[in-house]
Queue: 2 jobs
Job 1
Amino acid sequence: MSQDLLLEVGTEEIPAGYLPPALAQLHERIKAVLQSERLAYADICTFATPRRIVLHVAKVAEKQEDIVQEIQGPAKRVAFDDAGQPTKAAIGFAKGKGVTVEDLEIKETEKGEYVTLQQKISGKTTLEIMTHALPEVLLNLNFPKTMRWDDSGITFTRPIRWLMCLFGETVVPLKLGRLTAGNITYGHRFMSPEPKTIENVDYYWAVMKESYVILNPKERRHRIHKMLDEAAERHQGKLVPNEDLIDTVTYLVEFPSVVTGKFDPKFLNLPDKIIIAALDEHQKCFAVTDEHGKLKPLFLNIIGSNPEYKSRVIAGNERVLAARLEDANFFFTEDTKTPLATKVERLKGVTFQADLGSVYEKMERIQSLGQTIAERCDANPEWVSRAALLCKADLVTLMVGEKEYAKLQGYIGMEYALKDGENPVVAKAINEHYMPRFADDTLPETLPGAIISIADKIDTIVGCFGVGLVPSGSQDPYALRRQATGVIRILLDREFEIRLSDLVQWASTLLHPKFKAKADTVQAQVIDFLQQRLETILTNLGFAYDEVDATLASDFNTVHDALKRVRAVSEFRQHPDFEALITGFKRVVNILKNAEVANNPDENLFTEESERRLFKALVAVEKNIGNLVKTKDYPQILKQLVMLRTPIDTLFDEVMVMAEDEAVRENRLRLLARVRQVFTQVADFSRIVIS
Amino acid sequence: MDFQSIIFNLQQYWADYGCIIRQPYDLEMGAGTFHPATFLWALGEKEWKTAYVQPSRRPKDGRYGENPNRMQHFFQYQVLLKPSPDDIQDLYLNSLRELGVEVDKHDVRFIEDDWESPTLGAWGLGWQVWLDGIEISQFTYFQQVAGFDLNPISVELTYGLERIAMYIQNVDDFKKIKWVGNFTYGDVYFDPEYEHSTYNFEVADTAMLFNLFDMYERETQRLLALEQEHPLIHPAYEMTMKCSHLFNLLDARGAISVTERVRFIGRVRNLARKVARAYVGYQQQVAA
């Protein structure tokens, strides 16, 4: 027989972001308990609202199966005397196990004959197991923060106020702190607060439904999404998508409904993102646009209270929002009284980092570095210079100084620059120089934006390394890994012909007076760091580790070239001759390992036909790939290399490379060194792992 | 309901619950938490229920009385219950009902907000309470004060009296809050708001304030170092509160750089910690 297990942990409001990971953990841990306790079951489900965490396991066996356990006792020669009569040892053993000597058996083991007992252990009941296992599982859930609230000594993320736990129709009397589980639950805090006795799982679902609690977060989320879309439509608008906020509000309410509020259209002169930040950052409301994507003076809010009384709720929300927008409007008006350019001077008073000086100094370095980069990629030097000058100026505006708008840095600079009549490309570059802001963020669209983004980031990386702020393990307070990834992603995207080592060198030239270590040591460290980031990026793109390793060992400095090569290597791996060719190449590399040789063999010193054949093939390949190298057509280059396969193999089969005659030997090594050279233009194939 | 009736109702409600109604502390402080009835009495094992109004000052928040929601001087209604009762959320909601707020017909939400006071070395977990989107209270289960783990746990409720009054009276500016009869909040507090804002931002003598900070800091240290049977904990704590307020004034005046800021907070926290240590030590000594 099996029964359903149901657990409801009633809590005070748990933070929205804590719940989804907690549910996943609860699922995993219950699964582990059921498995280790050998309890069969059909399905595990977990649900949560801000006020309850619910576990449902369908069709759990009522008890563990009985098992027979073999227990070894004393050796036969000790347990029975010569007459075959049991000794004290046998009697004692049987007594200890609660059986008689007749129940004992003799079994042959590696160490001789021993007394054994086949003891039947009856399985524990699920009720008994769960009474002890569930509290343990609950108390071991990981939350970002936990607390105490009474003198029981238990900790949880917020106070637990009731426990309801049933196995079938029987209460599981588990204890947690001062609480013992019963069969009582409560509905929505305001719409159905009275206690309700639950008889079984099906009854529980029905009661929750009637009590204004939608248990399943998926269902709540779906409803919320639908409500928001429909409300936007009712106002001839479209919801501004914000999936993260929908996730949050899903866990803020037990019974969602939507309200629509208005704000004064005069605030629409504020930049869109500022309005949206005022709506969602603090008030957790949603914005609506018209069919042209223009914001409407409307907001949508998901509330968890009785939908019958919406009007006062709306009035309250409108008032808070009006105050917030009024604040933002004040900042905007004050900030735009003087042009953005006049604020640059004040960056002298803003510290970038204690050892690296002010943001003003950083801006000057970005400008200088930006110029150097711009020269190499045909960018308009004036735009780059202007954008660099202005890129940090919004840090001293009132708007960015306010906590809830701080994350709009860059965007606010752009909006103010546009208002000042700056060139639109310059304005856009101000916003884009922070890109990519996170792992999958988009890259700058404008060329000046891309250039300043690289300059800003490489300046931060080299500067931090220079003053000893090197990321280690999980410690990376200046997000240098993210910034390095940003630099490389932009270089890949733009295919700039700029070497990483040059970038580091240029930044170092501007920064080295501030360094606490020798400039060349710092540069070497940074280059190594960048190479590691590139390695990670390429492996994340799906290339095998050895392909990346081989490619970067040949050269990593021009990143888009490295990408082309690793792509070619990876495709080349499918070629039928690949393994054989690489095996041959590895022999070439091995034999050259300790040899210091030039790569110009003398044809007259060849003694064997196979040497001549290889040389001929090599010269032909070199000639063929001459142009391919210029156009970086690596797939074609690799196809050419295949032609060397047979000549290499034949050489090794027929010729003793390490000939006695020194001149002949040296000449053969020179031939192979030249073979090696032609391969390593693409990658150091000796690093490819062959099964 | 006028402003003073809101206070009367809260006083009565919490007195009926069994709180001792304390009076405001007569020193400048940033929040009701600084009152010894909370800061010191949350420490130690004795049961303790108290409620009081505390005028609070945050010099940086001054807006010359112009901003409808921000003032450098405002009132908190503070409740501290030790140990925290199991039905504390209901007790709190009932107190709102007592103010005529029909909580069942409004959107009341407990929004995660973990409270921390770097100057007091105190933290707790809890929420901001939203009423139709307006933050009206702070609700915190104290976990540590002055670096001490608390046992039993106290729960602290802090009502923003002006916010609640604006909500109940349906006015959109603190100056329009009806205090009583024909008196508005603005009648009583506009001039002080304007004058203090001017003082805090423009006129305060920073050299004097720095000097005072050092003096009060030294005095705290001196008092705590006195070797006597009954240590002068409360006077020492007053000097610490003085330092905290002086720091806030200097901060508002823009006299403290970002790096110095951290150092100043550390100095106040260090004093608060020493006072708390002396208090706990003395309580244990008396109990023994």
Job 2
Amino acid sequence: MRSIRFFLYGIPALLVVILIAAFVNATFLSVSKKNEMSIGTLGEPSTLNPIQQADSAASEVAGMMFNGLLKYSRDLEIIGDLATDWTLSQESTFRFQNHEEALKSRDFLNTLLSSSPALPVTGLEVQEDRLIVQLRQAGLHDSEQIFKSLWDFNYNPLPFPALAKGEKPSPFLAEPILRFHLRKNVRWHDGAPFTAADVAFTYHAIMDDRVASPRRSDFELVSSLTVPSPYEVVVRYRKPFSPALASWMQSILPAHLLEKVDPAKWPEIYNRHPIGTGPFKFDSWKTNERIRLVKNPDYFLGSPWLDSIVFRVLPDPLTLQLAFQTKQVDFWGVQPWAVKGLENDPRFELFSAPGNMYNYIGWNLRRPMFQDLRVRQALAQAVNVPQMIKYIIYGRGVQSNGIYTPQVWFYDPKVKPLSYDPKASKSLLDQAGWKPGPDGIRVKDGKRLSFTLLANNGNEVRRDISTLVQDDLKQVGIEVKVEVYEWAVLLKRFVNKGEFDAIVLGWGLGYDFDQYAIWDSSQTHPEELNFIGYSNPKVDRLLSDLRQEYNRPEIIRMAGELQQTIYDDQPYLFLFVPEGTSVMWKGAYRIRRPGRNPGEWIDTPVTMTKAGWSCDMEWFYRPEYPPQVKGSKP
Amino acid sequence: MSTLIQGISQTGQSRFLTRFRSNPFAIPSVLMILVFVVIAVGTALLSSFGHQWPCDPNLTNLEQKLLPPSSLHWLGTDNLGRDVLSRMLHGAYISLTVGVVAVSVSLGIGVLVGAVSGYFGGMTDQILMRTVDALLCFPTFFLILTVVAILGPSLLNIVIIIGLVSWTGTARLVRAEFLTLRETEYVKGARVLGQKSWKIIMHHILPNAAAPILVTAILGIPDAILSEAGLSFLGFGVQPPQATWGNIIADGKTYLLYAWWLNLFPGLAILIASLSFYLAGDALREAAEGRD
Amino acid sequence: MESFIIRRLGLSLVLLFIISIISFFIVTLTPGSPYPWGELNPKISAEVKANFRKKFHLDRPLPEQYALTMRDLFTGNLRSIKDDRPVMSRIMERLPATLALNVTSILISLSFGTLIGVAAARYAGSWQEVTGSFITFIFIALPGFWISYLLATVLVTNFGVPILGTQSYGIDFPNATAEWLDRLWHLLVPATVLALGGIAAQSRYLRATMIGTMKEDYIRTARAKGLQEDVVLFKHALRNSIRPIISGIGMLLPALISGAVIVENIFAYPGMGRLGYEAVLERDYPTLVALNFVVAALVLLGNLISDILSAAVDPRVRLE
């Protein structure tokens, strides 16, 4: 009897007491902060192995623990990371009938070179029937010029058979060579020295079928990778491929730990507790909750100021914001609509930078109604993009004018976006033969101008875009039905098969000018990325030329032409480029980084750079825990 | 109501009504349900005649986005400037439809399976009940999520799926009723007279099991409404721009700290509607079970 | 007794088999792209994708996939598509958090539910009881996600207390007590939200059965003997009503894990509900199949144990 009563009243009372105590305790907690940074992410990394991951959450975490040979500077220029410097050269090979012909052509070239020193040739060599020309720079241009001179003077090189199926035989071989010199003072987190063998291992691992690395396509054109000395790596490519340089930002894996292990075992022995060379070391991972990294005091650029970094996995955007407000998360990637409320709040600091992605509506060009350029132009002019920018992203963004975003160096600002003009839109539709029908929807040959617009759920911006497009197009007599699907379903049912009318999507493509996979007419098969079925021979030519061009002004010229040509075709309705904004509690962090001169330290507030706010994380510090070195104002 | 009253012996009818009325929640909850039904049907009827009251639920007006409640927009506007009150009124129709249709589906399957299982017994019973057991072991929500992904998120599909995963309780209940009723004198008598099985089921057993079945049905409606709201909340719900109470909250969830009205009012609507059904169902159950 | 156990065990295995088939086919019919990377990535070639499908047997016919999946499940080789780890270790690492959340939630709903139910039976008909009933019905009718959001927002904006995950981060705890209370706090908030429906169900059930039992002859006899009302209530009525509740706990598990999906997502709590939800979104077929299987196995085991226990305790339960 007594025991029943005890349980009946006692347990609830106990629970209430504990709850109150825990609540009171929680209200006192935010007082003493550790020297630890907390970053919130919506998604959880799949793996921390940098050659097996392709999700942004994973690369954000792994980026703190690993280094590539190269990296982007704060201004998005490519600079050395594990490599101190690098050179790019090329070997061009010409084939002749026999050894004598080759010798003769070498002598001819020698005389030619003495008369025209503009050619960047550094050496000539004959091997059997081949003449090998060493060039100071890569690309097709110089080799073509040599080929032309040889041909003009009747030294006729023989063509080489095609390298791959579907390609033409080439008149000569042009093999770019990248040579990296590596840092000598770098150690892995377990103390082992970093050498060129690690680079070679990483390359071979990426190409290993058992690893199934998503990075593979970056390295497919590598013909050999050699290690002439422990601190030197030489990479030879089968043909010119200018995006290849950036691929060496790929994080390097430790050969001494993984070389002798079957990749099937990596998930257990490495992927969830990796060893890297970066400023932070892996500490622990509580699944679905957090990953903790601690500082690497032996980092080759110096020990970071912070003791540790915690990446917290918070799957819901609202709770991420709540975590920020309780100071459980130090940085928060704000949605545009929230910026308005935070901007004038003296407690917070906001950083904005032009985004690296654009939103668009892709028209399926296999559908007859979208094959008429006039219709696509009419669609573009009927949609009020400035209004979208104003209300969906609160003015935090710019109208997109094509396939590149404004902060990359090959972006062409001269491409003028089409203006919002419903009248022009209506007359274009009239010209194209679409006349208003009885219900206000335009009709041509008995078919109504009506289509389904797809979007994925969970993305508020795209959902709002689809609703507004529906409204705007109704004004000019076009009926739009909106359907929203789960991301995986959207891809499987519609995008991968190329079976849809129109779709709202966005591309965030990094800083790469090469967009072959998205626009080339050969990439329209199921599961390929030219899912709208776009095809323009001029674009195809520009795309392949661009991939073989190493000369910066030339790249800028061709990229501009590509951007203009595609924009003129309106295969997408290019919408807008939103800004990325992060918010921090005011003064929560500062940066003290090394200056140009040894021993000099520069102290700055946290600012947004072209490469985002989070570069140089090793030099972030909390003012409560000031660094040991004295800093000066920049 | 007629089947229910049939199900209770004629003399018990007035006693049943008295008992029902004596429950303090019975009358208010039934009235509340009626209000919701009138609103839902009224809005649907009006809009089918081309009158959108108070205004078009899908009319966007970006200049008036995220306005707090005012005399113009009684419950404020959402992130695209749509009137929340209009959206909620249209959402009432969807939510009630989901509730009623899903329950009909689950009732149909549940009664069929339960009746067959309870009446015939033996091997049929074994197989059906083991299937029910198997389904009861599934975490229902994953089942719904995966099936929505397979069939696609339309109103019809969602209703069917919610119905399909919620019939097991009804089946068990009906089976239990049938097991007892099968042994009653008049069923035995009917069997001796050589009546066909389905006739016995339809005429003798089912009417007598009507009361508990009706109670589960009414208690199932709010379950279905809440399931739909949960699905919409996770983005697996009805297609936009169609408004439901669940997806008004879902659309407004990111604005919660700035626009509380997007969350509060539809949430209250869900709460009050399902509360009314639960209270009415409970009053009905107590009255039918003969308690005071 | 032994033959009973063996028969029940056999039956459970048959059920498990049915469940595995149903869950495998429902799960694999789900359209989607089972790749761990975002699909629209220009860097990922068709060859890499094909390679990946082969690695996870996704290129085989469905019956063969089922056989391979089951073989791998029992040999412990079934791997998650997301991170290539054995699925059982992914499920097991959630087990402590899930158990903590669900046990706490069951504890809260049983203890408060019983208290409210007993009080409601004792004072049936009074205005206090009517108000109490009304409140418990509100608990059932509350949309879980709505109340979670409201609670989270109020706690954060009005009190500034951290509520996400299993503990606070970045804080120097003054002592171990503070740290443990912090963990308890992070457990109690979602557990309370999860328990609301349970409190209501438990109290309604108890009220109904207890009012029923109070009318039984033996209670009348007890009263007639002049026993105190409270003694009658606790000693006889409550004891009699509580047994079915204990044996029904096993069946609560799937509902709790389902119900926890939304709560775990909002409170960023690392439990099994979130694992399942993420697996659905990521089309992580192996994890989903295994998760359904494990939950079903746990439920069946729970039922078996509670059947055996109630048979052992109560000779009136026939072992058939």
